[in-house]
Amino acid sequence: MSFRQRLWWCGSSFLFLGMLLPTNVSAQSVTADGTLSTTVTSPDNLNFTITNGNQPNGGGNLFHSFSQFSVPTGGSATFNLVNTPNIKTIFSRVTGGSVSNIDGLIQTTNNSNPVSLFLLNPNGIIFGANASLNIGGSFVGTTANSVKFIDGTEFSAVNVNNPPLLTISSPLGLEMGANAAPITVQSNLTTGLDLILEGGRLDLQGQLIAGRDITLKAQDTVKIRDTVITPFLAQAGRNLTIQGNQNVDILALKNSGGALRSGGDLRLVSNGNISGDAHFVSGGNVSFQTVTGNPGKFISLFDPIIYANGDVVFGDYTGVALKVEATGSIEGGNITITGPDTTVPSSDPDFMTLTTQSAAILRAGVKTLPTANVPKMGVGSTNFTTGTVAGLPSGSIRVASINTSNSTGGDGGSIILNVAGDIVTGDLNSSASGNGVNGGSINILSNGNISINGTVDSSIFVIGNSGHGGDITIATTNGNLSFIGSLYSGAYSNVTTTIANGGAISLSTTNGNLSVNGDLDSSVNSQGTGKGGAISLSTTNGALSVNGGLYSYYSGNGNGGDITLSTINGNLLTQGSMFSVALSNDNTGNGGNIKLSTTNGNLSNQSILLSYSLVDGGNSGNGGNITLSTTNGNLSNQRELYSLAYSEQGNSGNGGNITFSANNGNLSNQGELYSLSLSLGNMNSGNGGNITFSANNGNLSNQRDLYSSSVALGGNSGYGGDINLIASKGNILGNMSSLYTFSVAPNGTSSNGGSIKLEAKNQISGLTLLTTSSSARAGSVSILGHGDLAIADTVVLTSKQVSISIPFFGTVNISTDGTGRSGDVNINSVGNLTLNNSRIDSDTKGLDSAGNVTLTSNGLIRFDNSQITSSTSNAGLAGNINLNASKGIDIGNNSRLSALTSSSGNAGNIGISTGQLTLFNGSEISTSTQGSGNAGNVEISANNVTVQGSIISSQSSGSGNSGSLDLHTSQLALTDNAQLSTASSGLGKAGNITINSQQVTLENSSQITSRSQGTGDGGTIQINARSLFLNDGSQINAQTNFGNGGNLIFSLGELLLLRNESLLSAEAGGKGNGGNITISSPFIIGLGNSDIVANAFQGNGGNIQISTNGIFGLKYRPYLTDDNDITASSQFGLSGTVNISNLNFTPAVGLIELPTDVIDPSQRIAQGCQTLGNSRFVVTGRGGLPDNPSDRRSGDHPWIDIRDPVAFRNSNALATGEQSEKRAANVTPPIVEATGWQLNAKGEVDIYAANNVARETTVTDCAGFLAITSKAF
């Protein structure tokens, strides 16, 4: 009912009352109509006594009939039951057709029971200001036509011609006429039990108090009013029912304790509007319902406050700020708040909220009500139960919708739902529009489940001054939270100077799951300053799932809000998108942070995550940080993540950090990640953010590309961010995915590229690592293995000459003349280190050097079809390559270590330090030059070096010189066409080769070469070893095609052995001179057409200087033959010299002085060299034994006896010769150490052992010797 309707209703009611209320009551106000035995007496026509009447069968019912029944002011009407004391109920009717004007007392006397009184007057009843009741039982005042009884009889006030069928039965109900007359109350009416007023309409003022129930019922409307002088009160000890079939209109706000009170249930019933401007206080349930029992329509223009010690149920509500508090549940329909409640007393704890906002406050399941005015349950009361909201536990709220929005220029009102049970609601709207308005806050708090299905809106549309979207808080302590729909708390404006903020959004559960299916948006569209609202979703003990979008962007000079999703004990799943963005055509702020985390649970992100700062014409802010983390669980990301600072024409800020962390679980990434700063105009860019993946106790899988970069197309660029992938106790697995960190300024100055760091226990695979900078230093790459680390299918680039694809822009070529070093690469493994199908490139195309590459292992380093390349194509130096392994290094299956230059910069050096180095199956260690720069040096330090079908080289094909090879090893073995080379095929000189070793062996066409195929000179090859063996076409050469032959210098402690067409050559072609060959070795043996050559073509032959104790098989000849030759001839020049001299030998070399009395010889020396008894074999001399007791013995280390055998001959030895010969016939000859050698008649070398038996002849005495043919080699 509208306010205008109310005024009409009030006016018409007063007009009606004016017609009905006489100024004076007639002289005879109470008169019997004679139809029953009713007796009325009055001594003064003021006070009337009513006796007798009809009592059917002596029962408890008594019937009276009056033609008139009115009580004058100050008078009384007394039902005297002296003659009928056992009466319980009096039924009285008025049949005369006049209104009953009650302005005095109605009472009963002389009754033994509390007596109830029915007063029927179809013509109307008026209780004046002085009316009162003294009824111990119930009072029923009605304008019904009759009373119906259970037995089917009725007591009628309109059909008086037929005698009534009086009954002892209980009344069943009232029979109302078609147009029943009204009932008006202006007084205080009190009954002991029930109070019932039923008429066509009820017009009520004053007070109505009943010990039990109060029923106020009208066919049309129940209207209640009060004044300051006479505040209205309807108070029932039990239930209070107000029913107006068409309307209920209550405006009773003068009673500070509440106008409507019930000890039990309070019901307002109407098929029309139920207008309730009153405070409702109920000790039971409160319901607003239709006549058929459905929730009724509730309106209020001024002040509706409901307190219920039970449930509250109503249908749609429209009106001012609403407050409902119940110990039970609350169920409502659509709630629409039209304005604040300006009549709330200041003592109310929600005074400010209700009086300043269009608020809706619903609290269910409260422990106690904030009022002491709840009536005590009346006589005959029964207990009632809460939880009558269907399907919900006690203390719940269910409403269809709540609307506290304001579209007329004021703030949106707050929505407060606070329950101990569940909350079920649809749309919630506290939005606002206007000048400087704010959205109302929404607070939904529950101890049970929360289910919201609809749109929640606290946003604003601002015209003019600043405003803020309302905060939204939805939280439950012990229950699930489910949201399906859309949620808005943003701010929108078309005014450029408006300062606006989005409201914060918080959804949380303590013990329960949280599910969002829809969009949450706290964005701002304003060109002023401000911030998008923060969005927070959290659970303590429960799962969190999001299927929709979370948006907090600022379109203007403001910041995007933070987005946070977290669980303590539960899984986290997201599907959709999350944006925290700052957008503007001018300057803009920062993108907000996005954080997803769980402590004990799995995290699965299937949402696109964006934190942008984007601007067209001005400067951008920073991209926000993006963090995904779980402490005890697996982490999986399946979508793209962007942290971007972007400006079309101005400066761009920094890209934010992106961090993934799974402390005790596996980490899997299947989405591309970008942390970028892009400036596409002529200004500068900021820094790329860091990208960090950490799986400390699990495996790490990265399936897509990662970018951390800074790009300024016209100005200067900032630093590329660092990329860190850490799986200290697990593996890092890629899927041909790339890690990019670069700084690019094609037309300006760049900063350094970021660093890349990988840590794993046993495996890193399927990755491409790129760090670069167009004009500064590329970042370093660091790889750490905590166990036996295998790096497979991985490429590492710290490059200055690449083309890169820049997201949101396209492909950019790094400047070819840029400055700045390539980054260093450091790979360390606690255990073994294996590279399989992998590649490491550090190159430069600028003036600064390429980075160094260092591999370190406490165990073995293995290469399998893998490469390390450090190169330069400009004046910058190629970087160095260093390998350090405690146990060994295996380089196999076409693997390669390369340090290259193709320009004026020098190639880098290669250094290897290990226990054992093995190259096999086409592998290569090389430094080379194709330009004017020099090739780098190769230095190898190892106990053993084996090269099988592979190459170690430092070569030149340009004008630069080859580098040197330096090997320090106990054993060097080259087999199967293996090469050590410092050759030159251009203008440069061949490099030098220096080998320090115990033994050097070349087999199967292997080579050590420092030859020059161009115009440069051959290099020097120097070998310092105990022995040097060449076999099967192997070579050591320093030959040249045009330049001077290189030099060969061999300093050998024991033996030089050449077999089967092996070659030592310092030969020169063209006009070059033959190189010099210097050999110092105790023994030199050449077999099978093996040669030593220092020939020349047009130049002079080289000089050959040989110092030895003996040369076997080799002979000087002026030209090469099919025999074993030593030659230093020249075809057109002077022949060189061949000088063979004795080797100066000092017996004391290598000996130490021993004490003369170490042992008693008489106790230690046995007869002769017999193998029986206690005989021993004592070696005195040099060689003949392996370097280490665990090594096998070899003929490559002959023993040399430096004693005179004659001194050991004696008669005893000779005497035992015959005996020894006999014994040898039955004893297998032992294998003994050799003591010397000699040439036999055939020119063969015989190796013999003094003091023992011969292997192929008869046993001799200790002075004899054993002959071994050269076939033993």
From TrEMBL:
<dbReference type="InterPro" id="IPR011050">
    <property type="entry name" value="Pectin_lyase_fold/virulence"/>
</dbReference>
<dbReference type="InterPro" id="IPR012334">
    <property type="entry name" value="Pectin_lyas_fold"/>
</dbReference>
<feature type="domain" description="Filamentous haemagglutinin FhaB/tRNA nuclease CdiA-like TPS">
    <location>
        <begin position="32"/>
        <end position="150"/>
    </location>
</feature>
<feature type="signal peptide">
    <location>
        <begin position="1"/>
        <end position="27"/>
    </location>
</feature>
<dbReference type="InterPro" id="IPR008638">
    <property type="entry name" value="FhaB/CdiA-like_TPS"/>
</dbReference>
<protein>
    <submittedName>
        <fullName>Filamentous hemagglutinin N-terminal domain-containing protein</fullName>
    </submittedName>
</protein>
<dbReference type="Pfam" id="PF05860">
    <property type="entry name" value="TPS"/>
</dbReference>
<keyword id="KW-0732">Signal</keyword>
